[in-house]
Design goal:
Strand order of the largest sheet: 1-4-5-6
Structural class: alpha+beta
Shape: globular
Distance between the termini: 51 Å
Order of helices and strands: HHHEEEEEEHEEEEH
Oligomer: single chain
Number of strands: 10
């Protein structure tokens, strides 16, 4: 493993406690809203979604791409098309490292060019602050578009998930 790759891996590993805390807060928010007791499963998306009441419970359909899940244990996962993996394990394939001064140039220049673009994360060398390139569906309130801190992204998307659930109850 090259020195840069080893340093990148160390920096990502240092974020694991942060991911746990963020996942725990998200799970707590979902539990307080009644989601974890009402919707079966081992994980739920951290995403805006439309909920529908059915005879046997609820179904939901996310709006846009789903990049993160939270598990019943409070772990944040990277939601890939064919599986979900712990965020710290899957992050290396979707991360770019940048200096604080270059942060504005690290996002997607023209926004998403695909309906469900792959995730794009940016980790700032100086601060170890993690950002995600967030695409917002046009006209959708409550979603910040562009390069946003991961914590803000998770809080906004989790709040939209909770609001969607509450609207269907």
């Amino acid at each position: 493993m090259a020195a840069d790759e080893a340093e990148q891996k160390r920096r990502i590993e240092r974020l694991v406690p942060y991911f746990r805390e963020l996942g725990s807060r998200t799970l707590e928010k979902y539990a307080q809203a009644g989601i974890t007791g009402t919707i079966p499963g081992d994980s739920w998306p951290v995403a805006d979604a439309l909920f529908k009441r059915r005879d046997n419970g609820f179904t939901y359909h996310p709006h846009g791409a789903v990049y993160l899940n939270v598990t019943r244990e409070g772990e944040l996962q990277l939601a890939l098309p064919d599986r979900a993996v712990p965020l710290h394990e899957g992050l290396s394939h979707y991360i770019q490292f940048a200096h604080e001064a270059d942060l504005a140039d690290s996002g997607t220049a023209e926004g998403a060019t695909e309906w469900f673009p792959p995730p794009h994360f940016v980790l700032v060398w100086e601060t170890s602050r993690l950002y995600i390139d967030s695409a917002a569906l046009s006209g959708r309130p409550g979603i910040t578009a562009g390069l946003v801190p991961l914590e803000q992204y998770v809080e906004e998307r989790a709040q939209l998930f909770v609001e969607g659930f509450r609207a269907a109850v």
